[in-house]
Design goal:
Distance between the termini: 36 Å
Helix content: 10-25%
Number of helices: 3
Largest sheet: 4 strands, antiparallel
Radius of gyration: 14 Å
Structural class: alpha+beta
Shape: globular
């Protein structure tokens, strides 16, 4: 089975977390996610997040500590998903790839439709009182 590393950046500010809505189309189209993406060969997890946030949100980020990681299988590929705290030093981000972005509080976060891996991240954040 092929294995891949994938990432999610968790940006929390004033009790709210940044989530982004995928564009329509595809299996996860229209669903909300924690921005990040697949690792390229020889790229660190931190470099992956910096590249993905720049590509998807035009944001220059700083990576922080690892919050948690877990494995999941999708289409016969074993993914190792690593979630890191991120900060946006200049406070600037805008959707480039995504249909929209939202700073969601605890209540709003519970109402968003997400794919299974992002739902697992949401549950972790809520159960561990990050918001």
């Amino acid at each position: 089975m092929q294995e891949r590393i994938t990432t999610a950046g968790i940006f929390i500010n004033d009790g709210m977390v940044l989530v982004a809505k995928r564009p329509e189309g595809g299996v996860l189209g229209g669903k909300w996610e924690f921005p990040g993406g697949k690792n390229r060969w020889a790229e660190s997890v931190e470099d992956t997040l910096k590249r993905e946030w720049k590509e998807e949100l035009d944001a220059d980020i700083k990576t922080g500590k690892e919050l948690f990681d877990f494995d999941f299988i999708n289409k016969d590929v074993l993914y190792h998903l690593v979630c890191l705290e991120v900060s946006v030093p200049d406070g600037f981000f805008r959707p480039v790839y995504h249909a929209s972005v939202l700073m969601a509080d605890k209540k709003a976060l519970t109402t968003l439709e997400m794919g299974s891996s992002d739902d697992r991240i949401r549950k972790f954040l809520l159960e561990n009182n990050y918001l």
